[in-house]
Amino acid sequence: MAKIRLYIDHPLAAGQPVQLEAAQAHYLSGVMRLRAGERIAVFNGQQGEWSAIIGEIGKRGGVLEPVAQTAPQRDPPDLWLIFAPIKKARTDFIVEKAAEMGAARIVPTQTDFTNSERIRQDRLQAHAVEAAEQCGGTYVPPVDGLVPLARLLDNWDESRRILWCDEALAGPAETLATLPRGPWAILIGPEGGFSEAERKRLIGLSFVTRISLGPRILRADTAAVASLALWQAALGDWA
């Protein structure tokens, strides 16, 4: 059986019981068919991965008993992903892959051409949790509520540089190795790109760096994965 991992929003310490939520208990007992006495892996995003024994389990709840830490906490580099929500399934994909690939924060933004005017922040956060559970991660990136791009830029801390993947620069893919290390955010535009007013403002900001992702114009979800891979390979924890 594949290793079962569960995110627990609770401090972890040997011998300190942890109460399971109803949905978690149902997953373990009803879906995975686990019983009391069996072991799973748990993590809370702060204290690494732990081995835990199922003490009690039922349809409405249960108790886990943490035994010992089995892996240290692994935090991602200080990289945010800013993206304009698109169709539901593709937005879910972006959040899942960002969590898998080591984004420290996920920031959905409303642009002039964004198709969606609202998101289910709780649902997207759940996708980030599931991605961390499945990929062996010990960190779950927070997913912010939808924020207008203009407001986001108005309140931006300029010590965090923005890497703008600009489809207008389609051509040879660029290397990021010469860029400075430190806090960064990747910016992915909506279907149809940014408006002229948005482009003008982004181009005029000293903390924004424009790059090409290659000779083809990528869909937003593909661009998110490609840019995360480029940044991680040059400036992140893949380097």
- Sketch the topology as an H/E string, one letter per element: EEHEEEEHEHEHEEHEH
Low-confidence spans: none
Number of helices: 6
Strand order of the largest sheet: 8-7-6-10-9-11
Question: Could you tell me the mean pLDDT?
Answer: 94
How widely separated are the two ends? 33 Å
Rg from Cα: 20 Å
Strand content: 15-25%
The helix/strand class is: alpha/beta
What's the number of extended β-strand segments? 11
Proportion of helical residues? 25-40%
Backbone shape: elongated
Main β-sheet, in a few words? 6 strands, parallel
What does this structure look like?
There is one protein chain. With 239 residues, the protein is α/β, with parallel strands linked by helices. Helices cover 29% and strands 24% of the residues. The protein contains six helices and eleven strands. It has helices at residues 22-31, 88-101, 121-135, 149-154, 196-203, 220-235; strands spanning 5-7, 18-20, 39-43, 49-57, 62-71, 79-83, 105-110, 147-148, 161-165, 184-188, 208-211. The strands form two sheets. It has a six-stranded parallel β-sheet with strand order 8-7-6-10-9-11. Strands 1-3-4-5-2 form a five-stranded mixed β-sheet. Helix 3 links the parallel strand 7 (105-110) and strand 8 (147-148). Helix 2 crosses helix 3 (121-135) and helix 2 (88-101) packs parallel to helix 6. The protein starts with a strand and ends with a helix.
Quick structural summary:
This protein is of the alpha/beta class.
